[in-house]
Each structure stands twice: as structure tokens, then as C-alpha cells.
Amino acid sequence: MTSSATSSRVPTMKPERVVRDVSNLPTIAFGSQSIAWWGTIGFMVIEGFTLALCAATYFYLRRNFSAWPPEQTPRPTLLIPIIQLGVMLVSIIPMYLAARAAYRLDRSGMLKWLLVEVVFKIVILVLRWYGFKALNTQWNSDAYGSIVWTTLGLHTTLLVIDAAEDIGLVIIILTKMRDRLFSDVTDDAIYWYFTVAAWVPLFFMLFLTPYVS
Amino acid sequence: MTAAMSPASRGPIDEDVQELARTWSRPPGFWGWLTTTEHKSIAKRYIITAFTFFLLGGLEAATMRLQLGRPENSVVGPDLYNQLFTMHGTTMMFLFAVPVMIAMGLYFVPLMLGTRNVAFPRLNAFGYYTYLIGGAFLYISFFCNTGPDAGWFNYVPLSGPMFSPGKRIDVWAQTITFTEIAALVGAVEIIVTTFKHRAPGMSLNRIPLFVWAMVVMSFAIIFAMPAVATDSLFLALDRSIDTHIFNPAEGGDALLWQHMFWFFGHPEVYIIFIPALGMVSSIVATFTQRQVFGYTAMVLSLIATGFISFGLWVHHMFAEPIPVLGESFFTAASTMIAIPSGVQIFCWIATVWTGRPRFQTPLLFVLGFFVVFIIGGMTGVMVASVPFDLQATDTYFVVAHLHYVLIGGGVFPLFGAFYYWFPKITGRLLSERLGRWQFWLFFVGMHVTFFPMHTLGFHGMPRRIYTYLAVTGWGPLNLVASIGAVIIFVSVVLFLVNVAKSWRGGAVAGPNPWHGDTLEWATTSPPQSYNFARIPVVVGRGGLWETPDEQPVVGGLRTDTREVLLTTLLDAEPESVHELPTDSIWPFLLALCMGITFISSIFAPWGALVGLGLGFLPALGWAWPTKPPQPERISPERAS
Questions:
Q1: Each residue's pLDDT tens digit, B378-407
Q2: Are strands B563-567 and B574-579 parallel, antiparallel or unpaired?
């Protein structure tokens, strides 16, 4: 029911007059009309800033070393991280297609591309495992090893959360689909674009700057 | 279901109101208490929990004053004293001041915006439980003689694995993580609620100053808290898995800790101070019965304060080897922040000057704030000067300064706000007579306690010493300070008595006992679970004062689901309606999993992975959709 006419026993400050009827407004909104979108942006800012602080720490600590990586520490291996970066960039495509299907209210298309995306993220996580090995140092070797492992670890946490979110969405779409999930999937896509976008500068920092003397 | 509306009425029909109450009320009993997502219930718990921590922090301070009341006293030994001052600072900053300010926002922002709950009600409950678990963990550890003992800012290398073995510092680091998560959650809640849940007509230039202050505070939290969360993560890793981020022997850097801590720590002061400014504006407007002079200047000053607060952190590190240019920059920034603060103080003075001030307890606390905070601000300008700071650093002068700033800038407005909004929260007025007694005792006790500390600092008394010799001559002033602490103690006890007496037996307040202008006064005291039977429409900056004869409202929101109205960012035009989730146990369970994650990581690093894995199930349960009661209407405005 909605609120309507006549007198009332409810204590109010003063008489009320209805000046707007909102009963026909949409119940599901996308993008900046949706509060979930704003929440996603908020947490992206927080996590992005945390990663930026790691990057600041990386360069701050670098001032303490005459050589970077420190002497006797080999530079990172590039092959696996480059492959992983490539897979991450390509993974934007199924995520984009899932979001596009969501905008079109196409449940099966959205589910299909979301499943493809889950496979991509599993591959990315496996590659990330080898990405840690590719750093060629340990977290407890020295400050260089500590900050590169910590930065990579924090970004990996985002990957895990992204993958868990996709898996959760697939489970819910398969068992308890409702229209609001269309909007949720578009927000999920934005979060993934952010995770990939955050990785590009971090990849350069962790894996390529050690090659710049 | 939608029903017809009449163009004018005195209020919603009873059946609608009863259905609203059924829809928005929590289930009875403990289960309902545990699963509720109502912002007022959560915020009340936040306020009560934070105030409990305030009392505990106060008792720690009282114990320290007892110890320092005379030379070579032996009430506590050095080890317990180290824990006491660390617990006091940590409690007051992380478990009291920030949470209580956020809690006031979580209670009043939705009411002032004319909506029925915060944007993410389950997230709100999760934030509270995370905070509660973190605070309880700290105090359980303290009572097990594992309280942190390296100062509230835990400088390395003292707090590092070499000089602080054991688990005390790990407890501190994980407490920080808990409270930061809760603060960040609260900040996102307040920002999104303000951006999207405003009543129709409440364009940006009509938002109450209190809400503006809460928004600025929330942005400051979003950019400040990650710094201390990252810093404490680095510390926890250095201590638990032998990383070397702060270990100079392996290329780490001890000064990095201070930079990251104070990048958070200085805005932290403003995270406490800025919402207090919003409280002051609310009280000044109501108790002078006129809108605050210079609305635009006030809002811009709040935003400027938020920005500049991020440019001051190095003034906490003037005694460290900092480049001279850096020192000059941060001195300039530190003095510059006095400008927006000054603008606001002059606007309030103009408001009081041209209004009809009623000197009741809330306004008394605001006037107390002016006096105390201005003294704290002036000593702040003194320590902003590098040569002076080098003399005063780590002495009791700084203790005096920071208490003048934080008690003046935070606690005085907060007590005023308690008196001002207590009738809204409980439906009863606090006793005015007891309130005046409490104010004067607090005002006098504050000066008796902290003013002598300026002199003690000039006489060279360092901070964080558990005792001193009689020959230093510090005894008499310390005794005076300790007597002041007793006066503060009596004042706080009076406040508790006032609350206990008035909660059930105070004068009935009615919806708007002070004749305030903001929308929280447009509903019952205390507000119903749904806040407003019908969403108000705002027609001017003066809020309720603009519509003295009748209240324009919105019709057409469903009463059988938790439907709220979303409006546009700039002009608050109705845009869509949104169904908020029902009450749920999952936020509590997820908070428990987070607790397992953080606490177990202290004892076994892999424990964090177990907790994270356990968290998937409650997260899934949290997101599990309920069946909508009607066909959903999808916005035609979406990208293709």
C-alpha cells in the first residue's frame, strides 16, 4: 500500500500536503542512478588509494638502496607477469560483454559471459601464483622483497574478491534470478575494470622499473 | 500496491502507517536485536559503545592523574603506566572520538535528509559489529596484561619486533584494522546516503550544515584511514612474518612509519573536529532562531578545512630530520588552516550577534567550545613554528595543547549535541539544571586539569613518564591537574545521572522541543522505525521554518516493502525508488569471520586465510536476493 488520504492519529508537526507522486518511478536503476554504483566507486577509491600508498612506499624505500633490486637479488622474471597482464587485459572483453548483456536485460548472455569471466579469473589467479615466484625474492629477504610481496599480495586480494564476487553472482543468477542483478553485474564490471586498471601501473612498477637503472 | 492520493491531508491513513510499522520494525527478542539493520538502532549502539569506551579511557586517564598527583608515587608501576597511556590514547582516538562522530552522522544524516535508512543498511550493521569486536578484543587483551604499551602512535623501532616482543603491539595493530574498516564503512554510508537519499528539493545548496560537515568528514576518512590501515598492516607483517619495511638494517625506514601515521593522524584531528563544527552550526541556528550567517562561506570553509588538513602532517615531525623547505611548507600550511576555522567562528559570532540567543545547556557547551578551542588553536599556532616546536616537543605543553584542541573541538560540541538531540533520540529532555552544573564543572575542570600542563611543559616535564622526583618542582602543578581531573570526573558522573534520570523520567519533548529547522524535527521523538510516514519535500534552505503552515510531502512510496526514494545528485529531483534489504544475521556473521581473520593472524599468519575463506558463505548469504513483491520497473536510462 502507499500512503494516501484523510485524517490520522499519527502525531505530525503540521498538516501535510502531497505534492509529488513517485509510484511510477523505476525500481531498478543503472550507473550513477544506482546506489550500488556509488558504493562501488567508494570502495574503489579506498582500495586504489591503498595501492597508491604501497607504490609510494616502494619508491620511498628505493632511496635507501644504491642498487634496485638490491645487489645479489636478480631482477624479476618477465615472461609469466607479461602473460598474466595480457590475460587480464583480454579478460575485460567478456566482462564488458556480460555488462552489455546486463544492460540489454539478456539473462542468458549475461550468464554465459560471466562464466567465461570466471574461467579467466581462475587462470589469472593461477598465473598470479607464478607471478610471486617471478619476483625472484622473498618477503623476508630485505625491504625490497617486503614491499614487492606486500604490494602484489594486496592486489591479489582484490583479484580473489573479484573472482569470489563473480562466482557468487553466477550462483545467484542460476538459483534466484531477479532483475536487480542486471544492475549488479554492471557494477561488478566496473570493479573489474578498476582492478585491471590498477594493475597496469603496478605491473610497470614491480616488474619493469627494476630494469631502469 | 499503490493507492490514490488526495491533494491535501493531515497525514497518512492509519492502515498505511500500521503497514509501514510492520514493514520497517525489527522482529521481537534477541534475534531481532542481533539482526536489525535500522540506522537508529545501530547508531544508538555505536553511541553507547563509544561512550562506554570514553568512560574506560577516562578511568585510565584518572589512574594516570592519580599516579602523577605527587612525586615518586606508586599507584601503578612503569609497565602498567605504559599500557595506560597507550590504551588511553588509542581508546579516545580510535574507539571513542571517531566512532561517536560517525554514529551521530549515522543517526541524524538520514533524518536530516528526510529518508528512512542509510544507503547500505546491512553494511552499516557489519561496520558496527566489526568495531565492537575490535574494541572488545583490545580491552580483553588489556585485562590479560597484553595491552599495547608503545604509545597511541606506536613509533617504530620501539614497536617493532626487536624492542617490543610479545603480542601487545600486534593487538594494537589489529585493533586499528578493525576500527578502520568500521570507519570506512561509515564514511561510505554517509556519502552515498547524502548523495542519493535526499528529500526532493534538497539541492546541494540546501543541505544542512551538519550534513555537509559529515560529508567532508567522510571524505577525509576515505583518504586518511587507508594510510594508517596500510601502516599498521606493514607493522603487523614486520612483526609476524619478518618483513623489513621498517627495519633500517635491511633497507627499511623507520621514518616511513611516522609519515604514513601522521598522514592519517593529522586529518584524524579534523575527522573529529569537522563533525563537531556541524553540531555547533545546528545548535547555534536553533538557539538563536535564525539561519547560520554565511551559509556558502561556511560550506566552503568546511571543505577547505578538509583539504588543508592533509597538508599538515609533517608538523608532528618537526623534531625529525626533515628538509628545511619541507618544514617551511608545513609551517605555512599549519597556520593557513586557521583561516577557514576563523571564517566559521566569525560566522557563528555574527549569527549569535544578530539572533535571539537562548542560553540553554547546548548553547553553553558551544560557547565553552569557542573559549577552549581558541586557546588550543593559539597554542597550535605556537607549535606550528619550528623553533618553538623543537623546545616544546614531547613535553607536557603538547599534552595541554592536544587536549585543548580535542576536548574543546570535539567533546564540548559533542556534549552540546547530546543535550540538543537527546530529546529526539529518547523523546525526553535532559534536566537543564543538571546540565548547567555539568557544563560548569566540565569547563572549570578542563582548565584546572590542562592549563597547568602548559607551564609544566615549559618547565621541562616530558610526556609519558610514570613518575618524577620532588626536586623537579613539578609536584604542585601536577597536584592541581589531578584535582582538575576529579572535577571532570564529577562532571561526567553528573551527565550519567542526568541521562539515567531523564531517559524514562525526563520532561516529554514532543517532535520539536527547540523549534529547530532541520528535518529530524519533522517527525516524532523518538522517530518511528520508518522515520517519516511520508517523505517531506524541501522548499528552501530554512527547512521547517520555510513551511510553517503545512508540510509538503511525497506520496506513492510502497508501504509493504522497505522502499526509499532516490534523487539526483545536484538538485535532488526524484529519480527512482529503491527497495532496501531486510534485516539479516549475515552482517554479524561476516564481522565474526573478519574477527577470526584478524585475531588469528596474530598467532598464525595462515589463520587470516582461514578467516577469509570462511567469509565467503556469509558474504553469499548477505547478497542472496529476496523475492520482489511486484514486477520490477527498470529504468529506461541505461547504456546500451
A1: 898 898 888 899 999 999 999 999 999 999
A2: antiparallel
Domain boundaries, chain A: 28-211
Residue of A nearest to B553 (CA): A18
Which chain B residues contact residue A31 at CB under 8 A?
Answer: 638-639
Residue pair B268/B221 in contact (Cβ under 8 Å)? The answer is no
Q: Do A180 and B625 touch (CB under 8 A)?
A: yes
Q: What is the ipTM of this complex?
A: 0.92
What is the Cα–Cα distance from A122 to A138, expressed in whole angstroms? 24
Are A26 and B547 an interchain contact pair (Cβ–Cβ within 8 Å)?
no
CB contact under 8 A, B555 and A28: no
Q: Do A2 and B555 touch (CB under 8 A)?
A: yes
Q: How many CB pairs lie under 8 A apart between chains A and B?
A: 323
Q: Which of B120, B559, B640 has the CB atom closest to A103's CB atom?
A: B640
Determine which of B512, B547, B634, B637 to mutate to test the interface with A (most A C-beta atoms within 10 Å). Answer: B634
Kindly report the CATH class assigned to A28-211.
mainly alpha
For residue B61, what is its C-alpha cell? 586517564
pLDDT tens for B89-138 read 999 999 999 999 999 999 999 999 999 999 999 999 999 999 999 999 99
Using a CB-CB distance cutoff of 8 angstroms, which residues of chain B are in contact with residue A168? 616, 619-620, 623
A103: closest chain B residue by CA? B640
B-chain CB neighbours of A185 within 8 Å are none
Q: Which residue in B20, B24, B27, B99 sits closest to B57, CA to CA?
A: B99
CA distance B451 to chain A (A): 39
| Full-model pTM | 0.94
Angle at A25 between CA A20 and CA A29, to 5 degrees: 140
DSSP output for chain A: -B---S--SS--SS-EEEEEE-TTS-SB--GGGSHHHHHHHHHHHHHHHHHHHHHHHHHHHHTT-SSSSPTTPPPPP-HHHHHHHHHHHHHHHHHHHHHHHHHTT-HHHHHHHHHHHHHHHHHHHHHHHHHHHHT-S-TTT-HHHHHHHHHHHHHHHHHHHHHHHHHHHHHHHHHH--THHHHHHHHHHHHHHHHHHHHHHHHIIIIIGGG--
Which pLDDT does position B4 carry in this prediction?
Answer: 37
B184/A39 Cβ within 8 A: no
- In b/e form, how buried is each residue of B368-398, taking b as 16+ CB within 10 angstroms? bbbebbebbbebbeebbbbeebeebbebbbb
Q: Which three cell numbers stand for residue A165?
A: 564476487
CB contact under 8 A, A28 and B632: yes
